[in-house]
Amino acid sequence: MIDADAPPDRTRSMLGHLSFGVEDLARATAFYDAARALFSRPAVVAFYSAALEAGGTDAGTPGLRAHYRPSSYAAFVNDPDGCKLEAVHK
């Protein structure tokens, strides 16, 4: 049973993929083409920059997120429809 009031255990679970509705498919396709596998901190920065260039907005500049884990390096953007995305390298 999942305790909805408990903080998520970020060490054990991860979504492999998801789907959601968008207002403009062409715009969303251009934005999400910026997404890549993130194997390094420079890749997080590149994702963040590409997302902003593709119409996303800043929701958290690239940097360490030690409250997740000591080596977690992440950036946050909102896509053109307002969905918040995280790019992370652990």
Can you describe what's shown?
The chain is of the alpha+beta class and 90 residues long. The protein has one domain (25-89): Roll (2,3-Dihydroxybiphenyl 1,2-Dioxygenase, domain 1). Helix content is 23%, strand content 22%. The chain contains two helices and three strands. It has a three-stranded antiparallel β-sheet, covered by helices on one side. A hairpin with a 5-residue loop joins β2 and β3 (84-89). The longest helix has 13 residues, at 41-53. It is globular and about 40 Å long. The mean pLDDT is 80.
Mean pLDDT: 80
Count, helices = 2
- Per DSSP E runs of 2 or more residues, the count of β-strands stands at 3
| CATH architecture field | Roll
At the fourth CATH level, what is the homologous superfamily?
2,3-Dihydroxybiphenyl 1,2-Dioxygenase, domain 1
CATH class: Alpha Beta
Strand-pairing-aware structural class: alpha+beta
CATH topology: 2,3-Dihydroxybiphenyl 1,2-Dioxygenase, domain 1
**How widely separated are the two ends?**
28 Å
Strands ordered across the widest β-sheet: 1-2-3
Q: Work out the count of structural domains.
A: 1
Tell me what portion of residues adopts beta-strand conformation. 15-25%
Summed up, what is this model?
By secondary structure, the chain is of the alpha+beta class. Helix content is 23%, strand content 22%. It has one domain: 2,3-Dihydroxybiphenyl 1,2-Dioxygenase, domain 1 (Roll), CATH 3.10.180.
